[in-house]
Amino acid sequence: MDDSAKRLLQRLVRRIPTQMLRDTLDKWERLTAKQREFVDFTQSKWTITQELLAVCEERELSVKHIAELEMIYVIGNPNQGMWHTFQLVDAEDDAHSLELVQFKEQFKSHLSELKRNVAVKIKKNTDEAIWIRIAWGETFSRPNHLKATYVVHYLQTPYVFVSGLLSKHKPLLLQALTLSTRHQGIKDANLSGQKLTAIRDLLMRQYQHVFPTKYPSPLAERNQSVSNLHIENEQAEASANRHRMAGEAFGNGMLPALQSAVYKLETKFRDLTNETMTERDKPLRCVVKFSSPNILESLRHCASTGIASTPVTPLLSSIPLKGRNYFVITDNAPSASSQMCQTQD
């Protein structure tokens, strides 16, 4: 093993929880059963690392093999790091007939033409997702496997999920993806988060969809303890309306665990007592950010319990409808705040 393979293995062992390390090594299948038994997983991480280094040295494994181990762990634990979403646009006529073998060959070929010294590993997951691991090198240096970029793409869909991408490599990756998937362009989908499964489900509508309607729908029965019958009777109609409106805005089932929503506002300052700010020619710019372990569930709860007003403002309900968590809002209206915000597509 060379130094780069040793460093990658050391960092990977520190990263993987001890209770998950054995299963990850079993899926790797680069070590024999006897060699895996040689490793004592009850010891400290330092001791486990030294034992694994010795076993991998015996097997004469390279950095390419250690990268496979990292890829197995990342695929099995996708809700780590920060994932950003892109959307392919203007598909060519034969884009929907693209197969995995064709995609792999074309992607590697295009990326190699754009960037020298790049290492690419492509693996198809059980859920039909195509996982790509890219280690970038420079003109006179080998690929750096310690800072790999991960790309997830579902063939025949326009969505691409990327993690660990540096700004200098972004144009190269996007161009290679555009060419290899047979599209004319690719754009930012304005959706990001630490949980890949959440942003995937939100963008690809893999959860109970939202079906807005102007007609009231019957409220499903709820098993709730009634602490005060008099209060419950008085507020039953208002509570039912709040639950119905919250359900129409966000759905009634499990929601993707999106963790943040950012609104970039550009508006006019309105205060008759402050002429200096009110008469400014330039608009007032600010950023509003909502954060929560599950922001969609939090917003639905706020609407259904009366913490937030209903009907739910389109700015908040557009998160599940548009599949975004970043919005640019411009205020051009001179009057009422209820007419001031428009979400730009």
UniProtKB/TrEMBL annotation:
Q: Give the originating organism.
A: Crenichthys baileyi
Top-rank lineage group of the source organism: Eukaryota
GO biological process annotations for this chain's record?
A: CENP-A containing chromatin assembly; chromosome segregation
Q: Which PANTHER family match?
A: CENTROMERE PROTEIN N
The molecule here is called Centromere protein N
Keyword Nucleus included in the entry's annotation? yes
Pfam families for the chain: CENP-N (PF05238)
UniProt-annotated location(s) = Chromosome, Centromere; Nucleus
Q: Which UniProt keywords apply?
A: Centromere, Chromosome, Nucleus
Primary site of residence: nucleus
Coiled-coil regions listed in the entry: none
Sorted alphabetically, the Gene Ontology cellular component annotations on this record are: chromosome, centromeric region; nucleoplasm
Q: Which family does it belong to?
A: Belongs to the CENP-N/CHL4 family.
Write down the InterPro entries for this protein, in alphabetical order: CENP-NAC/CAD_complex (IPR052011), Chl4/mis15/CENP-N (IPR007902)
